[in-house]
Amino acid sequence: MSDEKDIKQKILHTAEEMFQKFGYSKVTMEEIASNLNISKKTLYKHFANKEHIL
Q1: What is the CATH number of the domain that holds 38?
Q2: N or C: which end of the chain has fewer CB within 10 A?
Q3: What pTM does this model have?
Q4: Can you give the residue range of the structural domain that contains 22?
């Protein structure tokens, strides 16, 4: 279970950094997943869309 929490925290941290650097509207879910070296399926397992990451 802690691995799931770790992944979720990594997603939140990475997405926040990307939103600050590039702007929220410019960052896609695919780019977040790619930056983390995870599949889009894994990303969507934790967050239904970008709004849920905020």
Answers
A1: 1.10.10.60
A2: N
A3: 0.89
A4: 2-53
